[in-house]
Amino acid sequence: MEHTTSTEAVGKLAEARSLIAAAWAEAADADLPAGHAAYFALLVEQLGQEFARAQLFAADLLRRTGAHQLDADSFQAIADAGEQPSAEDLARAAGRTTMGRTPYKNTAGLLHNWLGIPLGTARDRLAQADCLIAQVTTAGHRAQPLLPELAAEFTAPRSDPRLVLSASRLIHGAQKDFGPGPAGERARAGIQAEAVELIREQPATARKHVADLIHQLKSGKRPLGALLSEIGLFKLGRRKGLENYLLRLLPSQAEVLDAHLRKVDNPKTEAGNREDLHRQAAEDLAAENGDPDGWDNSETMPDWAQDPEAAAAEAEDPDHEDPGHEDPGPDDPDAAESTQSQPEPGGEAAGDEPPAASAAAELLVPFEDMRPELRHLMGLLATLKSTGTGKRQGAAAEVGIIIDYDKMLEAGQDFAVTITGKPISAGEARAALCNAGIYPVVLNGRDRILNLGRSQRLFSKSQAKALRIARRGCAFPGCTMPAERCELDHLDAWEKGGRTDIDLGDLYCTVHHIGRHCGLFHAVKVEGSRPMVLLPKSVDPEQRLHLNTHFLTPAESKRALAWAAEATQLWKAGKLKVTIAEA
């Protein structure tokens, strides 16, 4: 039997493998221009997308053809074909299946034992094939994929299949939460449609928002009693020399912790004081690895820990200082001069860190360069160790809540969200208002008391608070830098007549702030809207207006993306006033 089409397909794939291996080997040894290196990286990422598709289709092909039933001679013929098979090799590699005893029990076993793929990964690929390619019934018949909307997006030429796979895994893992019947089908179709829209419009935040949608689905079906039964701080014991804890919180409780960590990240707050935190970290390391608090010093050691023989030797030493001897007073300058402490060459001066702490400090990188996880831990421990007075008394966390007044009157629900994008219930919002400090931040309206015009160049503290609350984070699409770590930026340069108004300001992280002023992208002023971003044609050939939805809830993100698409159409039709800000 001839297999012309499949022979050509397998031959092309074998040739492609050889070409890819030769390409990276030549590129690694060549003196590439920077442009060719960038092009090489772009092509590799595009190949990665194609391989993500090919891997899933390969798993489905193995299952569809019953390849696990190939006999031993067929597997040997495949191995003998090698990396550059001839036409005869490919013909022999077509193989034959048998109904007798076979080396592999099923497709998952073939993937795991023959290709060396972890068993969990093999099973996941087959599950994803059910979702995105075709289901296989108990009778062995093929049916439409479980997630048809995502299946269509998976094969779309300009779509990133890795994002589709991620969304598919999340949705497939929540099958039981959709419920049975038509209502469950509608819920599943709705989340698929939202996932497809997110993948198309803003792929950088798609994973986060799809995960949020699934979390909302699961949270909405769980009573508060069930949630309360699972939260807490659990000690897991010591593993690999470290004490392990598991912290599980309600969303409202997590916001308090997040607010504290934002203060730790901000060096201008007491909680984020870099010198204090670095010193605290050094002391903790010294206590763990060195001599905590001079424990071996006989002068500070408690009586019950003293060595009697060492104490007797000190008593016989004529140079030993008598504890009852009084220091000369200030009226005896000669005595004071003679007894003044003089550090020996190479010794420590008064006030220097103990040797153990100094050695520990050398192990630490500057606090700003620490891993965020380590920095947050040190900040939290420092707050727990504080007495509530002194420098760290102002380290209490502040939780910001934004309330959509119109939505509150209209729907009475889903109207409150934290400044980090976590939705909170109406009850939680009412409880917060009972104890909150309310800031009169005007985010809409014609008269804005927070506009300073040309009266001063720098944004005021009130303006900074308003902008950080309104924007929540960096304005660049997909950037995850939160507001407290961003810089305030005039959309119109001050030196060119720009005004210090909150309408004409935005937030950018350091990287994207510099990038905007280098012309790598443009900030766009849109009438009646927050500023948007216009990416270069090399990134966005369609030249659409973009908003960063990373810090928004899924519902807010959906509305923001719809408005960005509408604003783009109106702008290109000449029906919306849009001004590209000068960097």
Automatic annotation (TrEMBL):
Biased composition, class Low complexity, residue ranges:
343-357
Which CDD domains does the record cross-reference, listed alphabetically?
HNHc
Species this chain originates from:
Glutamicibacter protophormiae
The segments labelled Disordered in the record are 287-357
- Entry-linked InterPro entries: HNH_nuc (IPR003615)
Note the superkingdom of the native organism: Bacteria
Report what the protein is called. Answer: HNH endonuclease
